[in-house]
Structure formats: C-alpha cells, structure tokens
Here is the input.
Amino acid sequence: MAAHPSRAHGLATWINRREWLVGYLFASPWLLGFLIFSLVPILLSFYYSFCKYDVLRPPMFVGLDNYRYLFMESPRFLTAIANTLYYTAVRLPLMMVGSLALAMLLARPMPGIGLARTIYYMPSIVSGVALSIIWLWMFNPQFGLINRSLAIFGVPGPLWLESPNWSKEAIILMGIWSLGGGRMVVLIAGINAIPNQLYEAARVDGANRWQQLRHITLPQLSGPLFLLTIVEVITSFQVFTEAYLMTRGGPLNSSLFYNLELYFVAFQDYDMGLASAMAWILFAATMIVTFLLFAASRRLVYYESGKP
Amino acid sequence: MTIARRTAEYVAHQATIWVGALLLVIPFLWMISTSLKPSAEIFSPTWLPSTIEWGNYTRALTEIPVLLYARNTVFITILCIVGYLVSGSMVAYAFSRLRWPGRDAWFLVMLSTMMLPPQVTIVPSFVIFRQLGWINTYYPLIVPAFLSGWPFFIFLMRQFFLTIPQDLAEAAKIDGASHFMVYRTIMLPLAKPALATVAIFAFFLHWNDFFGPLIYLTEDSKFTLALGLMTFAAKHQNEWSQLMAVSIVMLLPSLVVFFLCQRYFVEGIATTGSKG
Here is the structure.
C-alpha cells in the first residue's frame, strides 16, 4: 500500500480531496448495488424471518415462530437438511478424488493433451436445464443408456431418479460428470506450480510414485484442494436446478434438498417469512462449516512460508 | 526403467485419457443420435438411425418459439455483459488505482458479499422488484449487472489491474490526464484479457441462468431459452427426440463460444482458482 500523502501542503490536500471524490465516484456502481441489492435485502430478510409475510399483506411480527415451526413442526424441513447433508457428504469425497485423479492424469504435457482437457471441461458449460434433460434420458430406467449398458453385463439397473434409494446418487453422478472437469482445471494449475526439483530430489532418494503423491503432491496441492473443498461444500448446500427439473424433490421427498424446499416455501406457498428464516439458517450453517474448515486447514494445509 | 516399460506406461496413460474422454462425450453423442431418430426408433438401442430425421428439429422449432426465446436470451445476455464490463471495470479501477478513505474496508465488505448465499437476498429482492412493478420485465435480470451485482468480476478485474505497471498512468497524469482518461485510454486497452474473461463468464452465467427467469418472468413471450426449454420439457415428457433437438439448439451457441474462447476461459479459471 502506498504511503499516505502529506497533508501539510494546501494544494496536496485539495488534490487529495479530489481523489477521494473520484474514488467514490468510480466505486459508486458497486456501492449503490451493494446498498440496493445486498445491504437492504439482508436487513429486510432478517426482519422478515421474524414475520408472517405473504407479500400481499404487510409483514406481521411473530417473534421466533418461524424458527420454532421449522425445527419442531415442519414435516419437510429436517428431511431437506438430511438430504442436503447426505448429498454433500457423498459428493465431496467423490468429487475431490475424481478431480484430483483427472488432474494428475492430464497435468503433464503430452501430444493431444490440450484437446483432452477441452473435452473433459466441456460438460461444465452445459446449462442446468439442458443437463437435466440429457440425464433424465440417460437415467431412464427402461430405455436409458445407463441401464441398457448395465444390462449388457447382466446387471439389473436401479430405477435411478424414480427410486427413493437412488435419486440422490443419480443427481450426484450427474454433478460429477458436469463439474469434475472444471475442478480438474484448477488442480492442474496447482500441480503445474509445484517445483520440479522436489520430484527430482525424491526420485534420487528412491521415493516411489505413491510416496511422491503422499509427501509432495498432496502437501503442495493442499491450498487448491482446500479452496475446492469450500467451493464444493457451498455448491452442494445450494443444489437446486437439477432437483427442481428432474425430480421436484421426489420420489417420497428423497431428493428434497434445502434450496428446493426454500423455493417451494417462498414461491409456491408465498410464505416469505418462513423462507427468510430458512435462508438465515442456511447462511449460519454455511458460515459455521466454512469456519470449521478454516480451523481444520491450519493443521492440514501446507503453506510455503510456514504460516497461513 | 527400461524403455519397454516406459513405452507401456505411456500407452496406458494415453489410453486411460482417451477412454475417459470417450465416456465423457457419450451423453453428448447419445443426445445427437436421439435427436435425429425417427419416432419408431427412439426406444431402440441403436446408435445410428436408419434415416436421419431432421423433422425433429423443424417440429421442435415450430412447436415452441425458439427464435423468440433465443432473441430474448441474447438481449438479456448482451446487456448484462455490457453492464458487468462497464461497472465492474470502473469499480476495479477504484479498488486498485485510486486512494480514498474506507477503500480497504469496502473491499473487505465486497469480498464478504461473495460469500453470502443468494437465498438470503432473493426474497427481499423479489419483494423490492415487485414493489417497483418490475415483475415480468427484464429489469430484475439486467439492472443488477450495471450495478456490479456479481462482485467476483470486480475482484477478477482488480487482480488484473494490479499487475499493470504504474509508470504509464503516472506519465499520463504528469501530462495532465484525468483519472477518467487514464482509466479509459490506458487501463481498459491494457486490461483486454481480463475484460474478455469477464465477458465470457458473464455470457455463460446469463445464457444458462434458470433461477432468475423462473421467478421474475411470467409471460410466455418473455421467456428465455432455459425457461422455454423447461416448459417444453414439462409438456412433452416422452418426446425424447424433440427434447434432445431443442437442447442441442440451446447448447450450440455455448459450444461455439467455448471453442472460440477456450484460451481465456481455461486461463481465467485456473488463475482465479490458484489465487483464491
């Protein structure tokens, strides 16, 4: 940061003051946007969460009623939490191991590697709606490509999206297909930043592949891996489009995720107070998990300088 | 390691990469195959249709106003891109090159809004837009872009601005250039790669956006491609060839943009990822 300019001189102060004005002027689009689309909505949302509010009539203060209802009475709220946690817990390790494996496979320059990376990345650009339609067809229990392929090996495929036991797994599989390549690109950048001497030294000392992975790649990559873990958790907590389009939360609420329930409460029941309470609970949960991850990262993430 | 073993490993490595790539594109190929099949063959497991049925496309394109939806989507997407570029680059300039009181505090505030789940603001934003009479208009989708509604873009441009050497701007200022001129004639031209990255991200963000149009657009003629495709899918659940045909029409522009701009795209993701 530049040193503070001298205030002794009158002209300097004047220029300084002008620069203040210019600074705020240049920042004004965001400052205004922050005020209108973040600060005011945050305060309103907090207030609504203590109100009964259906948009048509003015909000009516009801204290902690919404929160009490969610935890004590709502038939769906706890199901939505359980489904979301299950989704996150299954998807996170699969995505991390999968994208790391891909990154290690595709990190080294070799003929055709550019094309290969492009192909692996391609599913990331498919819109949620098109993605859902493609995979509805892939997962079709009778005619879908997946069960057809399983049948060739004599394996009877599950009903996937139509089965309460497989709907979440199906959505997870689809998520890994669509986002694994994007996660991979981030990790490739991380792998390429690891100094080659480390591997050379390890080889001279007779370290095998597994030892190199365990003692060089993973510690050196712990920064990007940590970042991806946070991104993954936040993304998983917010899963919406696929479930909305493919299952509407069914069958038997087996894919009723938190955000889907929030959407139903807000934009089908128009119970804006309850929806706001749900949003704040999600916010609190996200903050707590992020905080815990950061706390854990102090022990697990390796920083070059020795300190985070 | 013997040469034979090294060759074997290389072949195995390459084979793994390409088998994986094939598995990954199979859903795309299956989609294309389905979209071209005559209706009698949709439920048969063949990859190549006996005759290529272009009619699926023409029927799908006439049954829903795809061109209208496409025009709506292009309109929204282009305006949003312009909005993010203009507002975001100004704010990024303020956060990287200007000294003003509270700058660093505001920057922290901006970073923390990136962490805020959109659900927290979605209900009150909906209420505010409703009060303004903006439901079933494009304003709720476009106006936030002009007010830097996606702070990540500011962050991305600021990081890039910080890498541009100060000397040029200093020289211009000594020659009497105003901050606006420095921003306009020095920073923006030099920041083209960052602007391109933001434009591409913004394209995908809004071309694929589903939630915004879902809650703000109510009238059929205003729908975007994503919303129109969803409505079509709900009505024609088992007409797989037509569903695939419309999906392909929606995907094509994304694929074209992706292949034309790959370089910016992958670099942008990689740098933002590694810098956090």
About this structure: Chain A has a mean pLDDT of 89. Residues 118 and 159 of chain A are 32 Å apart (CA to CA). Chain A has two domains: 1-38, 66-126+167-300. Chain A touches chain B through 93 residues (CB under 8 Å).
